Automatic annotation (TrEMBL):
Signal peptide as annotated in the record: none
Protein name in UniProt: Pyridoxamine 5'-phosphate oxidase N-terminal domain-containing protein
InterPro entries attached to this UniProt entry: Pyridox_Oxase_N (IPR011576), Split_barrel_FMN-bd (IPR012349)
Residue ranges annotated for the Pyridoxamine 5'-phosphate oxidase N-terminal domain, each copy included: 14-130
Record Gene3D superfamilies: Electron Transport, Fmn-binding Protein, Chain A (2.30.110.10)
The organism of origin for this protein: Pleurotus eryngii
Pfam families associated with the record: PNPOx_N
Length: 209
């Protein structure tokens, strides 16, 4: 039997923080726009502030639907489900805010010493409703480990950006450097808009941080 709550129960917070992955769903306002569902992983990327507020570290991807949709309307649902033990599904319904790489809010939550390679934003979610259900049809799966491909790809791209910024002479150029194979160039080319043309990353690709 499904249950609904106005905030995240303490027992559910404990369970959520043990999960190895979650999904986020967003959509644009236009009726024929692309509804998006994205799987998320990597240990330590999801954080619970309190019973009504959570956030996760958004990593670089081939697209940027979630950020674009949140900029337009803020609607987001985060889903967790059990792959072992008792069946359980949990949905966090909320209003999301984007803090891009290079913004003060991002830098406060994710200083360089703790952020993951490829990190591009913080997605902060104000939770207004929580739903749990059984998940009786969800299969069992054994967790083998987190993939390292994104991290491995991002490190050399970030290093190119860093080296270019260190070599910049402010007296001769006011434009932030952007190596063609750097992460910021990738953001500019692939993460600036959604499939429906909505703006996504606005500042990260030009940040000098």
């Amino acid at each position: 039997m499904g249950q609904f709550f106005d905030e995240i129960p303490e027992s559910l917070i404990t369970w959520i923080l043990k999960q190895q992955m979650f999904w986020v769903s967003t959509a644009p306002l236009k009726s024929d726009g692309h509804v998006n569902v994205s799987p998320k992983g990597l240990e330590g990327s999801f954080h619970v502030v309190d019973s009504r507020r959570v956030w996760y570290e958004d990593l670089t991807g081939s697209g940027n639907e979630t950020i674009a949709h949140l900029r337009e309307n803020g609607r987001i649902t985060i889903l967790f489900n059990a792959f072992e033990g008792l069946p359980r599904i949990a949905r966090l319904f909320g209003k999301g805010t984007v803090y891009e790489y290079g913004t003060p809010e991002y830098e406060e939550l994710l200083p360089p010493s703790v952020r993951k390679p490829g990190s591009r934003a913080v997605i902060m979610v104000e939770v207004y409703k929580v739903g749990t259900s059984c998940g009786y049809a969800v299969p069992y799966y054994d967790f083998k480990g987190h993939r390292s491909k994104l991290v491995d790809m991002s490190i050399p791209m970030q290093n190119l950006d860093r080296d270019a910024e260190l070599a910049l002479d402010p007296s001769t150029s006011s434009e932030p450097p952007r190596p063609k194979k750097g992460l910021k160039s990738y953001w500019a080319e692939n993460n600036a808009t959604s499939l429906d043309g909505l703006p996504a990353l606005l500042y990260a690709q030009t940040s000098t941080r």
